[in-house]
Amino acid sequence: MSQDWGTNDPAGPARHDPSPPGRPQRPQLSDRTPPPIGQTLPPTGMVKAARSLWLLSFLLGAVAIAFAYLSSDDRLERLREIVSEVDPAQDEASVDAVAALVHWGSLGALALIIVVEALLLRGLMRRRGGVRWVQLVVLLLHGGAAVLADAFLVAPGEGEMYLRWALVAQVVLACAALLVSLLPGADAWFRAKHETYGRPRG
User: Fold this and answer.
1) Would you say 134 and 124 are in contact if contact means Cβ atoms under 8 Å apart?
2) How many Cβ atoms are within 10 Å of 13's Cβ, its own excluded?
3) In this structure, how many other beta carbons lie within 10 angstroms of the beta carbon of residue 108?
4) Residue 134's closest CA among 123, 146, 126?
5) Tens digit of pLDDT for each residue in 147-192?
6) In this structure, are residues 140 and 197 in contact, taking their beta carbons and an 8 Å threshold?
7) Three-class secondary structure assignment of the chain
8) Which of 42, 67, 163, 178 has its CA 20 to 30 A from that of 150?
9) Of residues 75 and 33, more confidently modeled
10) Could you tell me which residues come within 8 angstroms of residue 96 by beta carbon, excluding any fewer than 6 positions away?
């Protein structure tokens, strides 16, 4: 069996190209188009109005607590007198303890409720519509705490009516905020299932 060991072509034997002539180039397997960027659905005007009402309610509550704290000595003295009248047999230490418990307990309850409502508002602005029903329960507790605070912290007479009006206005604003968040203009925002999409701008 004979083999050809030589060739006249200095470049060596010609290689066979399996692809037929004129065949188009193979397209790229990966798409270089940038993917769409998810954008959160902006809140509607109703949702923004509800948020503003909640923030005003928090502000009024903080103002009421601050005023009650700054004049705590007068309120503690009045509470001591009330406790002594209710149970004259108690000693001075017990009277002081009960008065302090009532005073600081009322302020602490209001402050705690404001913190809880602020946390719920944060969840609400993340489109968690079920938070509104939790807000309703907390709002009922808020109303009870405001009534107790008015009874224990607000002295009778016209001198401290500003504190009473601050407590009332806070609850009214919170109720208005919850009501606005339940209106159709806000409810549609919570019920929307899809986010808006867009591509980055070059």
Assistant:
1) no
2) 8
3) 13
4) 123
5) 988 888 887 766 678 888 999 999 999 999 999 999 998 888 988 7
6) no
7) CCCCCCCCCCCCCCCCCCCCCCCCCCCCCCCCCCCCEEECCCCCHHHHHHHHHHHHHHHHHHHHHHHHHHCHHHHHHHHHHHHHHHCCCCCHHHHHHHHHHHHHHHHHHHHHHHHHHHHHHHHHCCCCCCHHHHHHHHHHHHHHHHHHHHHHHCCCCCCCHHHHHHHHHHHHHHHHHHHHHCCHHHHHHHHCCCCEEECCCC
8) 178
9) 75
10) 80
Dist. CA 153–CA 110, nearest whole Å: 12
Query: Angle at the Cα of 27 (from 23 to 30), degrees rounded to 5?
Result: 165
CA separation for the pair 187, 175 (Å, rounded)? 16
Q: How far apart are CA 109 and CA 148, in angstroms?
A: 10
Q: Which amino acid is at 187?
A: D
User: How many residues does the structure list for the chain?
Assistant: 202
Q: From CA 54, how far away is CA 119, in angstroms rounded?
A: 11
User: Average of pLDDT values for 12-24?
Assistant: 54
